[in-house]
Design a protein that fits this description.
By secondary structure, this protein is an alpha/beta fold. Helices cover 22% and strands 26% of the residues. It has one domain: 4-Layer Sandwich (Metallo-beta-lactamase, Chain A), CATH 3.60.15.10. Bound molecules: zinc ion.
Length: 282
């Protein structure tokens, strides 16, 4: 694994319109759902996109709404090759060619993507590896999902930790360990079991979603909040909601009840496919 552009960590920098404040990370879930996923993470000096489903036009629009620009991205990270995570990637690679922003993904995921005629600058890593992109330290960890070599990511800068974990059939002990000390957690809450049971998916599709390599249900997330959510997690963003088998208000209700059972001041946010979340400044 090549380590690129390691820079000095910023501890204090100027945020537009907010004056001098101690802030390390700027995070926005640009899109989240079974129809598409993309998340923006930045330090003062490094801007990355995790997963690239949006068209370049839509990505530009959503980034502009938070004062950012795809032409300034330093890297794109890919969790796995499913189309709801990579369908915008080939065009994005072409658009970022001049900037030479590499695509970070595992050795096994790279050949599983249809690159069409684009020639990506790849930074392939081994799942489980730690690497750096500028002043952003990245941990990758394997997740149980029916893709070639799927990973989730944790990002650290200046003592702040963000984790992005979607597309997994269950939460193994190793992932619970990786989520300790997370300040902002973006976690999948994909489906309601009852809605899935009576919903429109064919039987094999239902079995896939609820299988060990499928997606997390609201109930599993609720158990995680009750038993394992770290007290350091000030904000919990639940995302990758199924359009057919879930509803944002149901997620809010179930997760809210679980949070109420803990004496934590964790704020709950639901991420959507159609619009970006608020910008989280950490
Ligand atoms: Zn997937």
């Amino acid at each position: 694994m090549r380590i690129t552009r390691r820079l000095v960590l910023p501890h204090v920098f100027l945020l537009q319109g907010r004056g001098w404040e101690a802030a390390i990370l700027k995070v926005c879930v640009l899109a989240s759902g079974s129809s598409g996923n993309a998340t923006f993470v930045a330090t003062e000096r490094t801007r990355v996109l995790i997963d690239a489903v949006l068209s370049f036009r839509e990505l530009s629009k959503r980034l502009a709404s938070i004062g950012e620009d795809p032409e300034r991205l330093d890297a794109v990270l890919i969790t796995h090759e499913h189309s709801d995570h990579v369908s915008g990637l080939p065009v994005l690679v072409k658009k970022l060619k001049k900037r030479r922003a590499p695509v970070y993904l595992t050795h096994l995921t790279a050949p599983a993507i249809a690159w069409n005629d684009c020639l990506p600058d790849l930074e392939a890593f081994q799942a489980g590896c730690r690497f750096s992109i500028g002043d952003l330290d990245v941990d990758s960890f394997t997740i149980p999902h029916d893709a070639t070599d799927p990973v989730a990511f944790a990002f650290r800068a200046g003592g702040i930790k963000l984790a992005l974990v979607t597309d997994l059939g269950y939460i193994p002990e190793s992932i619970r360990y990786n989520l300790r000390g997370t300040n902002l957690l973006i976690l999948e809450s994909n489906h309601d079991l009852e809605m899935l049971k009576v919903g429109p998916y064919p039987w094999p599709g239902k079995q896939r979603v609820r299988g060990r390599n499928g997606h997390l249900s609201n109930d599993v997330v609720s158990d995680f909040i009750r038993d394992d959510l770290d007290s350091s997690t000030a904000t919990l963003v639940l995302g990758h909601l199924s359009e057919n088998n879930n509803h944002p208000e149901l997620v809010r209700l179930v997760a809210g009840q679980a949070l109420a059972g803990r004496s934590l001041a964790t704020r709950l946010v639901i991420a959507e496919a159609r619009r970006p979340t608020e910008v989280f400044i950490l």
